[in-house]
Structures are given as C-alpha cells and as structure tokens.
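Table 4 source record.
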Amino acid sequence: MATSTTKRPAISRLSGVDFIRGLALLSVVLQHINIFARLEDTKVGAFLPEWLWYATFNSGLHGVAAFFAVSGFMITLTSIRRFGSLDRVSVGKFYWMRFARIAPPLLLVLLVLSTLHVANVDGFRIDPAVCGLPRAVLAVLAFHVNWFESVHGWLPACWTVFWTLSVEGIFYLIYPLACALLRWGRWGRLFFFSFMVFLIIAGPVARAGITNHIWQQQSYLANLDGIALGCLVGIATNWSANRPKFTESRWPLIGQVTGMFVLLLAALGPWLHMVVRFDWSILGLRMDITTSLLGTTLFLWGSYLGKRSWVIGQPIRWFGRHSYEVYLSHEFIILAVLPSALEKGLNLEVLWIGVIIGLAALTGYAFAKLFSEPINQRLRCHRYLQFESGASQKTAKRCDQWFGLLGWLQLAIERKS
C-alpha cells in the first residue's frame, strides 16, 4: 500500500506550499491586469525585456496549473494524516471539511455578484444574450462554469474565476470514492492508480485536441491532470518522508532548485518559442502546462522533505496563505482601480500595479480574517467532526449517509471489501 496506516496529526502550514500558491496567485493577478489593460489598448510592462514580460504578465495559466497541483498534493497528504491512510477516507467528513473551507467565501462572493447584477452595476451585469442570473448561479453551484462559458460565452470577469472551482469541485466529488476503492486490495489499488495516470495522460491530449478556445483552457480533462499528478506526488512524498535517504540528504534541495528552474522554463515558453524556435510539442501535444506541473510537484516534494527554506520569500508566502480569498476578490479591485487609472492617463504603471496588488492583499486578508477563517473553524468544530474523540463508528457512518448517494456508495464499497 502506498499510504501510511498510522494516523498522524494534521499538517501545519508548509512554507513551500505557501510559496508556490503565492507565486501562482501573483501570476494570475498580473495576467488579469494585462488582459484588462489590453482591452483598453494598453500594454502593461512594455518597459520590461521581452522574456521578463512574458514571465511576469503572461504566465497566468501556469499559475492556475500550479494551484491544481497544490490542491491534489495537499488534499492527499492531509487525508493520509487525518484518516491514517487513503483507504480510510470518510466521504461525509471529507465533504464537510471541503464545504467548510470552500463554500462560505464562495457563497458570499456569489451574493455580492448577484446584488451588483440586479443593481445594473457596469462590469458586473451579466449579458442577457449569455444567460440570466439564476442560470449563472446554477453554473457556479453545480460546478460547470467552465462548460457553460465554452458553450454560451463569457460571464463577467468576477464570475469567470469560478471556473477553477468547477474543476476542483468535480475532483472532490470523485476523490473519496476512488480512495474507498483502495479497500478492494490489489484490484482496488490498480484501479486507483490507473485512474490517476489516465487523468495525467488525458490532460495534454485534451489541451491539444480541443478547438474551442475557452474549453481548451477550462475543460475538466485539460486541468484534472494537475490535481491527479499532485495526488500521486503526495503519496510519494508521504512514502519518502519515512526514509532517511531522502530526508537526510541533498535530494530535497535538488528537488526545490530543479523544480523552480523547470517552472521558470515553462513561464518563458512563448518567448523561447519566438526567439530560439523552441517547440513544446511532443507527439503533437503541447507540453508547456505539463512542464509547469512537473516543476511544481518536484518543488513541493523537495520543500516538504527538506529542512531549508532559503528560497521562500515571506511576502510571497503571505499571498499563498490567503490565496483563496485574494483569488476570489482580486477582480473587484482591478475593475475598481484600472479603468480610473487609464482614464486619467496615469503612466506610473509600477505604482498603480502595486496599488492593485496591495488593495487585493488587504481585501483578501480582511475577507479571510473576518469571514472565511472564523466560519471555517466554526463549521469544522461541528459535533459531527468529533467522532474521532469518542463517538461510535456507527454514528460516523450515519453522518456519511447524510450526504446522500455518494455516502451510500462508500458504504457499499465497504461491505463488499
């Protein structure tokens, strides 16, 4: 079995994970600034060398890929620590923990966006030719904003950010059931790892074989490879953590350095293609996003096992600690600041980009401290989660049943095994 069977304490904050999240978030914010500026016929960062401009303002998709890899990595390690091994994952508790973290901020932002739409605020009003408000809300809550936009057209910018949650939401629905199949012994393990490998292979194939531009970037298969690879590397990391030949050697440091180099190489992809005709295609598949995923997971592996954090910058780590809230709210700040700056002809790009990032940071921090974290902690302290310290397994299974069909599926798997 590739997972530990000894229950361990939950994982505390990991500096390497926060660093990658922070880099990913900043790359997304900077690319969105660039996209909004281009709509106003302005190119931000034109004073930068071409290679640095691409790495700074054109690497948002690589940032999103890194987010997905981190999600798979952390959800796997956290599940192993929380439940003892992946085959012991409880569907009910898994969903409740994900709900406590994801749902409250998402629902609050959804409420704000719905209010702004009803108030006909420019930049937040949904185009009637695309859909009405109820249909957009359904797309968010039912995890298919990505599919909806590929078929019907773009939603306003602050709605579009939900497409990544659509991808993660589908994976979170499937993941605990796949873990439960590990109880079937050799065949269960074969299915689990085959499923993860299938997603990893399907990712670059989907990105290369889709002609719809939106679906090419936002489809499930084109992004689930990152989460799947993160899961497998999380299992490998848990295995490596118990072996001194990895933890007491230079391999973790080599993993960090190599991972950062590979990430930089992927971010410079368009520039390398133009300048030195470097081709990312392998067997007809563009591998730039896959390269980002490999660099991200290699860095995560090295950071988890290593004792050094010399590459970890505290400001970037800060963004990583509040990445979810900043991600959900940063488009509001861009819409509030950028049009005014361009309208007034302010050419101090570094200054107003700094203002946007600073305000996004403050907004995300307030969002987390005043809303997300208190509600998350309150929900996680719900009586249902206390079965570890006294409630019976019968009570725990009954709680799983509260989650409907998926909970019953896990119970059926348990009986068969």
